[in-house]
Amino acid sequence: MTDATQEDLQDKRSLLDRLLPRWSVGQWLFATICLILCLWVLLPIYLLVLSAFSPRDAVFAWPKAYLPFDISTDTIAFFFGVRGVFSAFLNSVMVAALTMVISIGLGAPAGYALARFRFRGKDSFRLLIVMTRAFPIAILALPLTVTFIKLGLYDTVFGVALVHSALALPFAVLISSSLFMGIPFELEEAAWTMGCTRFQAFLRVVMPIATPGLAAAAIFAFVISWNEVFAATILTLQHPTLTAFLLTTLSESPLYFRFAGGFFLVVPALVFIFAVRKYLFSMWGIANR
Predict the structure, then answer these.
(1) Contact 269, 221 (CB under 8 A)
(2) CA geometry: angle at 203 spanning 199 and 204, to 5°?
(3) Cα angle vertex 226, ends 222, 230, to 5°?
(4) pTM for the whole thing?
């Protein structure tokens, strides 16, 4: 072997050393597991999106093209062309938005009270908040339906939003409580000494710091409402949400309609989480102080 060849081999080895880090066996195993988990989550979403934006004939093709060479909106257009889909989609958006407003509007004050005040039964109240998730909604379906019919809330967007808010409220209370506990109380006291009332100190000092965490709680409320199907099916008849509409039509729908429906159930929640991801990171930064 000549000197030039040896120099070339050494240059290639140094290049590989720079490109591939020298990890231990445990680090390579951890990286491999993380990669497998990412593929486990992302691959079905990719295939769902690919099928939703493929021509309707390509859905039944085999083998499938796993790269988007032939993007088509025929499946999406057919999906929204079905009677009732667009109105159900709008109903889901309105229900999710109302759920976010109600759960944060009620959960943030409750979380602030748990974090700042001492009162008798505080731990029991915290336990009762968690226990509300122990009651299956199937048991409450008939009483809720009868009550909503009497109150005129049956088959309304607001009625479904109330039930979804009850499902999301425990998470909003617990998240906001831990968030406010991580904000030093001395900041509010400093605002009081500068002439602010308690409410003004809360708005001007606490809320700007707590906004990322409250946004994260709103994300959970949005996702819970968007993906909930049982209550939306029981409490609606002529004005269903998208999940309720799809549940009643999937058994009689073609395969490409199911792919498009799955796309509009999964992707909006992912887009919403991606849009507010910085608030999620900020929340964990506050909680880890």
Answers:
(1) no
(2) 115
(3) 125
(4) 0.74
- Please check whether residue 51 is in contact with residue 207, taking contact to mean a CB–CB distance below 8 angstroms: no
**Spatial contact of 77 and 55, defined as CB atoms under 8 Å apart:** no
Residues 6+ apart with CB under 8 A from 271: none
Angle at 207 between CA 204 and CA 210, to 5 degrees: 145
Q: Which residues contact 173 (CB under 8 A, 6 or more apart)?
A: 107, 110, 111, 114, 129
Question: In sequence order, which ranges of the chain are alpha helices (DSSP H)?
Answer: 3-19, 25-52, 74-81, 85-116, 122-131, 141-151, 157-181, 185-193, 198-201, 207-227, 230-234, 242-249, 255-275, 277-287
Cβ neighbours, 10 Å, residue 264: 19
The 10s digit of each residue's pLDDT in 202-252 is 888 888 888 877 888 888 888 888 888 888 888 888 888 888 888 877 767
Is 76 in contact with 52 (CB distance < 8 Å)? Answer: yes
Question: What do you get for the CA distance between the two ends of the chain, in Å?
Answer: 59
Contacts 24+ apart (CB under 8 A), 243-250: 243/92, 244/88, 245/84, 245/85, 245/88, 246/88, 249/82
Q: Which two tokens stand for residue 143?
A: 């009483």
CA distance 244 to 255: 18
